[in-house]
Amino acid sequence: MSTAPAIAVAVVFVWLGMVLAISFIEAPLKFRAPGVTLKVGLGIGRLVFRALNTVEAVLAAVLVIAIVLDPPRVVTIVAVAVAIVMLVGQLAIRPALNRRSDTVLAAPDSQDPGGRSRAHFGYVALELVKVPALIVAGVTLLA
Predict the structure, then answer these.
(1) pLDDT > 90? residue 38
(2) Do 126 and 7 touch, CB atoms closer than 8 A?
(3) Which listed residue, of 21, 38, 65, 84, carries a Cα 20 to 30 Å from 78's Cα?
(4) Per-domain residue ranges for the chain?
(5) Dihedral of the CA atoms 54, 20, 38, 31 (nearest 10)?
(6) Cβ(58)–Cβ(102) under 8 Å?
(7) Which of 137, 140, 141, 131 is nearest to 16 (CA)?
(8) Stretch 45-59: mean pLDDT, rounded?
(9) Which residues cross the membrane (predicted)?
(10) What is the pLDDT of residues 71-102, one digit of tens each?
(11) Which residues lie closer than 8 Å to 42 by C-beta, 6 or more apart?
(12) CA 52, CA 25: separation in Å to the nearest integer?
């Protein structure tokens, strides 16, 4: 395997691992930890997801460069494109999530902020599409 495909494989699996670890393990579990209030959890989540999305954007750029340098099969290109489009969608949803968390963080502790926002469900839905796309991209790059 030459350099560009090797980099592409590494980037895809690092990206996948980060998404799985943060979105599907850290994010839900932090709210179950003793002493973590909704406000503290949201504050942590904002920082973590801003960092995750920044790293994802860098990984996506590196992946695109690797693919341009040594184009893989069409199925891989489509899977990578799907993952990148999902990331762009998430970046577009982030301002709505930030507005919602601003509202919750500004509310008195006694006020019930209600359930999750539609933006949150949208973000999760995009994540649920991005993960299989990254799996397909990684597996087809190795094949």
Answers:
(1) no
(2) no
(3) 21
(4) 3-142
(5) -150
(6) no
(7) 131
(8) 96
(9) 6-27, 47-68, 74-93
(10) 999 999 999 999 999 999 999 999 999 988 88
(11) 101, 104, 105
(12) 14
Please report where in the chains the tokens 């979105």 appear, as a residue.
23
What confidence tier does 31 reach under pLDDT thresholds 50, 70, 90? confident
Q: Which two tokens stand for residue 76?
A: 């891989």
| Tokens standing for residue 102 | 């601003």
| Percent of the chain's residues with pLDDT above 90 | 73
Q: Which two tokens stand for residue 79?
A: 């899977």
Q: What DSSP letter does each residue of 14-77 carry, written as one string? A: HHHHHHHHIIIIIHHHHTTSTT--HHHHHHHHHHHHHHHHHHHHHHHHHHHHHHHHS---HHHH
